[in-house]
Amino acid sequence: MSTVNSQKIQNQSKTVLTVCKVARIFLYIAFAAVIALFVASFFLTPEQAFLGWHLSDGTAITLAEFSPEGAKEFNTADFRIEMVDMLIYLVLSYLMLHQVTKLFTLIQNSENPFTAQIVSVMKIAAILLGIVVGLDNLLAGLVVGFSVYAFAMIFEYGQALQQQADETL
């Protein structure tokens, strides 16, 4: 691989890693917010659980405002289930972000992207991505997961070709 292309790939990897750091900060904030809301649901009534202020008139926003239309009162059990679902999404997203960070760190630090380690990380990321998308839409999750897995298989083939080329020299 030429030095110019290698340098370009390393610079792009560095940019992606910076974006991953920012995304990780947002994930930490989301974790904190969801855990705080989940814990608050055990100690506060929906009318007491303060979330912020309405910008239009300055009145308080409470959990009670998020009860479904026509419901006489806020269903705390449903709210807790939603918070647990959100935590599951956040954990899966964090694991996926960790794999993406690992992938681009490997790419940035290697001369050749066709290595067994990179292929392994790509396969794990494909499976996690398929699961995350599949939680909302099973068919879309399968399509996305298999598509990314196909790229991992292409990289695996590239790794085999690279190894043959290295052995030939």
Describe this structure in words.
A hairpin with a 6-residue loop joins strand 1 and strand 2. The mean pLDDT is 84. A two-stranded antiparallel sheet has the order 1-2. It has 4 helices and 2 strands, in the order αββααα. It is mainly α. The protein has a domain at 1-86. The longest helix is centred in the N-terminal third of the chain and has 41 residues, at 3-43.
Give the strand tally: 2
- Please state the CA-atom Rg, rounded to the nearest Å: 22 Å
Average the pLDDT over all residues and give the rounded result. 84
What is the percent of helical residues?
over 70%
Strand/helix succession? HEEHHH
User: Any low-confidence stretches, pLDDT <50, length ≥5?
Assistant: none
Major β-sheet strand ordering: 1-2
Number of helices: 4
How much of the residues is beta strand, in percent?
under 5%
Oligomerization category of the chains in this entry:
single chain
N-to-C span: 15 Å
Sheet bearing the most strands, described? Answer: 2 strands, antiparallel
Structural class: mainly alpha
Query: Looking at the structure, what is the overall shape?
Result: elongated
What's a concise summary of this model?
This protein has 169 residues and is mainly α. It has helices at 3-43, 76-109, 116-136, 138-168; strands at 50-53, 60-62.
Strand and helix map with partners:
Layout lengths: L2 H41 L6 E4 L6 E3 L13 H34 L6 H21 L1 H31 L1
Antiparallel strand pairs: 1-2
Helix pairs in contact: 1-2, 2-3, 3-4
